[in-house]
Write a structure and sequence with these properties.
- The chain is α+β, with helices and mostly antiparallel strands and 194 residues long.
- It folds into two domains: 147 residues, no CATH class; 33 residues, no CATH class.
- It has five helices and four strands; from the N terminus they run αβαααβαββ.
- The strands form two sheets. The chain has a two-stranded antiparallel ribbon. Strands 3-4 form a two-stranded antiparallel ribbon.
- Strand 3 and strand 4 form a beta hairpin.
- It is elongated, with a radius of gyration of 21 Å.
Length: 194
């Protein structure tokens, strides 16, 4: 039986990568770590600014991310992606410089190869476009405003599931904005301005 799209490339163990592939992989992981460090540093600056200006207690901070780690193929292997116009993909890639020495610069854009998604999604399995935890589970962290604290559970950690479309409705309600939100039988929340 043939499938309508090519199979994803197999996961490659580290010890099977060539020295050039290992250098490329190490640089991608270093860029990934640097982006996380930069984000952490700048979120810290923002929080300190809010505290210094007396706005921290009245500010709701929401942190989340896009779903999953990158797909398990290089950017140039769009044939593995579904719903991608290959001509547009090739045009997009032609504008990028993914040479080892340029990775992490503004004009680079890369995915992990078949070795990477499982490393960066640990402890989850899967990757973007998969229905495994590594493809759908992301952090969702909320620092509520002080005036909201009395209506929240006493636990500082809530384990649960949310869908990003729920966020705006809940935010509008919590900020006492004039919006009407309905939860129909399918569980989807819809909001409309009053």
């Amino acid at each position: 039986m043939s499938l309508p799209v090519p199979h994803l490339p197999p996961i490659q163990p580290w010890n099977t990568l060539s020295p050039i592939q290992k250098d490329f992989a190490a640089k991608i992981l270093a860029v990934h770590a640097a982006m996380i460090e930069n984000m952490d540093k700048n979120i810290g600056k923002l929080i300190q600014y809010l505290k210094n200006t007396g706005q921290y207690d009245n500010t709701i901070i929401v942190f989340t991310s896009d779903n999953g780690t990158s797909e398990p193929f290089e950017m140039s292997q769009f044939k593995y992606a579904s719903g991608v116009d290959l001509a547009d993909a090739k045009q997009f890639i032609s504008t990028k410089n993914n040479a080892l020495s340029n990775l992490g610069n503004q004009n680079s854009d890369f995915n992990y190869g078949p070795w990477g998604p499982y490393v960066t999604a640990t402890p989850f399995s899967g990757f973007k476009t998969s229905f495994y935890e590594g493809g759908i589970a992301v952090p969702f962290i909320v620092k509520p405003a002080k005036w909201m604290m009395s209506s929240l559970p006493s636990s500082s950690f809530v384990r649960g599931y949310a869908f990003v479309n729920d966020v705006d409705c809940k935010r509008y309600i919590s900020c006492k904005l004039s919006w009407t939100c309905n939860t129909p039988i399918d569980g989807k929340i819809s909001c409309t301005p009053n």
